[in-house]
Write a structure and sequence with these properties.
Elements lengths: L3 E8 L10 E6 L2 E4 L8 E2 L4 E4 L1 E6 L8 H6 L2 H17 L2 E6 L5 H5 L8 E4 L3 E2 L1 H6 L3 H10 L4 E5 L18 H13 L3 E6 L3 H9 L3 E4 L5 H9 L3 E3 L2 H12 L8 H21 L20 H9 L3 H8 L1 H8 L20 E4 L15 E6 L2 E3 L6
Parallel strand pairs: 1-4, 1-5, 6-7, 7-8, 9-10, 10-11, 11-12, 12-13
Antiparallel strand pairs: 1-2, 2-3, 5-14, 14-15, 15-16
Helix pairs in contact: 5-6, 6-7, 8-10, 9-10, 11-12
């Protein structure tokens, strides 16, 4: 583990603001606050420090949108691309990720720990077809847990590739969701539920799932109930705009367009419903192509465009995601998402105030990324 310090740097607080400049040091993988400036300190004048960013919904193993294209890449090329994508994700400021399907423990183990974010895995996505093929949802859940999943990912409604006019009918029964949560809980795992809206969200709330993924058509009442149950909403705003661009470019079927347009229009409203209901919001990208990996900071801009104040979006990008991951992981696996005395030293140092429009997503804004007390150069490899 490395060590270092910055004097007179502004630090993000738990409310999404910045206090007076102060000294921050890190050693043994932990932060220490205060003290007099010392020789060798990084001059933090004009710099800002935020906790390491958290992507609570990533597909790190995916390097192409279409499943057949992913297969054609082959295992060796996929391994290289996954390692490079995770490295780019880390140097862009994301020190923790939750993979929402596709990344297996063996593939992750092939990437040296210092070259990737901390990661929690769901290993596979469980939809109706997967559950039926494995002999029922109970067996599919057990199989994911045995494969190393810390999160059980249930695909409880149709998604973007569904035919136009597809409704929000739940894929699983309320009883099935309850059983999945019970099985996961016994193993110390959590359940994350892909649900665009409808009864699937009601069932996830009642079952005790920990997060709703997307939640595009979530109602005010559902948001309030989810907040009361201590859940988190993980919206993925930008991916639907990217999918629309792929459709316009002819890379995806035009038949997807109507459903994607719905998602683009309604998703920001769900974010505001969650905010107004007191339901925690954690940043998620849903990224799964070579071009997308490493550009996750743009999702912060999408949250602000949806109506969150910059401070609220910073909380969504840091501590909200960290708290969600901490529900199934220990402190070393899921830092608290705050810069505090004795806390895990994961952070991003910026040369611009991240509350300014476009500042956080500016590739030139990152001075350094700190992972477990080790400073990482954000410059790309030659």
């Amino acid at each position: 583990m490395g060590h270092g310090a910055s004097a007179s740097i502004r630090i993000l607080d738990e409310r999404g603001g910045f206090g007076a400049p102060r000294r921050v040091s890190w050693a043994g993988g932990r932060f220490a606050l205060g003290g007099e400036p010392r020789e060798g300190d990084l001059d933090g004048s004009g710099l800002w420090m935020i906790p390491g960013l958290v992507d609570a919904h990533l597909h790190a193993a995916w390097q192409a949108f279409d499943a057949e294209d992913r297969v054609r890449l082959g295992e060796e090329r996929t391994r290289r691309l996954v390692a490079d994508g995770l490295r780019r994700t880390l140097v862009s400021g994301f020190t923790s990720v939750r993979d929402a399907g596709g990344l297996e423990p063996g593939l992750l183990a092939g990437v040296p720990t210092p070259e990737r974010p901390r990661a929690q895995l769901s290993v596979r996505m469980i939809d109706r077809a997967t559950a039926d093929a494995e002999g029922g949802l109970d067996r599919a859940v057990e199989g994911a847990l045995e494969a190393g999943a810390r999160w059980v990912k249930l695909v409880a409604t149709a998604g973007v590739a569904a035919p136009a006019g597809t409704g929000l009918d739940p894929v699983f029964t309320a009883a099935e969701q309850r059983d999945a949560v019970r099985r996961a809980d016994r193993e110390g795992a959590g359940v994350m539920v892909h649900a665009w809206g409808g009864a699937a969200i009601d069932d996830a709330v009642a079952a005790g799932a920990l997060s709703i993924e997307h939640g595009i058509f979530m109602t005010d009442a559902q948001a309030r109930r989810a907040a009361e149950r201590g859940m988190t909403l993980v919206p993925t705003l930008r991916i639907y705009r990217l999918v629309r661009r792929m459709i316009d470019a002819g890379a995806l079927p035009v038949a997807f367009r109507a459903r994607v347009d719905e998602a683009v229009a309604e998703h920001p409203r769900a974010v505001l419903r969650a905010r107004d209901a007191g339901l925690p919001i954690a940043l998620g990208t849903d990224y799964g192509t070579v071009e997308q990996h490493g550009t996750g900071r743009l999702e912060f801009d999408a949250l602000v465009e949806a109506g969150l104040a910059p401070g609220e979006a910073l909380i969504a990008a840091t501590s909200a995601g960290a708290r969600l991951l901490a529900r199934v992981g220990g402190a070393e696996e899921a830092p608290a998402g705050i810069i505090a005395e004795g806390g895990i030293a994961d952070a991003v140092i910026l040369r611009r105030d991240p509350r300014e429009p476009g500042a956080l997503s500016d590739p030139e804004s990152v001075v350094a990324v700190i992972l477990g007390g080790r400073r990482i150069d954000p410059a790309p490899r030659p």
